[in-house]
Write the structure tokens for this entry.
Amino acid sequence: TLMMSISCFIKCVFIKKMKEEGKIREIGFSFHDTADILDQILTEHPEMDFVQLQINYLDWNSESVQSKLCYETAVKHGKQVVIMEPVKGGSLVQVPQDIKTQLQHLDNSLSIASWAIRFAASLKNVRVVLSGMSNLEQLNDNISYMKEFKPLTQEENNFLIKLGDQIRTSIAIPCTACNYCTPGCPKQICIPEYFRLFNNRKQNLFSGKSKEYEDLKNEHGRPLDCIECGQCERVCPQKLPIISNLKKVAGEFE
């Protein structure tokens, strides 16, 4: 821990020197932790120009991610915000059918993803929203409502936050499939894929035996192979109790 602190200090000194020399324009960092820790960092390092935060209407009131609290902390310190995970790894695109129906009732001409991205982009002090896109269709969809951006009304904003609270209770394991947990797994367990299958099962999207689960077991480690080393939980941005969740997956499918 001491060596890490020294390393971080040296990096900060180096980056500040580069900015003073005009070799870099701004200093910022990506953050996955509590609002209290963010407040401490920004208090000790007022030289930061911006901070990248995970913000979406699903995590807005989340006790673990603390989107709202972290956003308010950045604003309190006068920092610009770069938003990551506006659609929560696709969770705010593949929403439960009742949530989808409610969004379509608001405006059937807009995509489901657009509500999540517009929620993030409507916040003040936001510099840019980083929307992960997998194909040209998604890119064109983003451009369609961001080219001439129309912020959410306060009523729409409040409505989405309530929907987020509803969705959060329906998602058994709020994994974003970032895959930070998989490279260091000594048993090569494809953790996000198992969690996806588990969530689908809990949302009643399928039942009975799962061929996909059996295929995953044949190609990768099984959930029951977990040796509880904890490396996955140490790197998880969502701070998920991965070890206990793997046991839930095994209990459901084995």
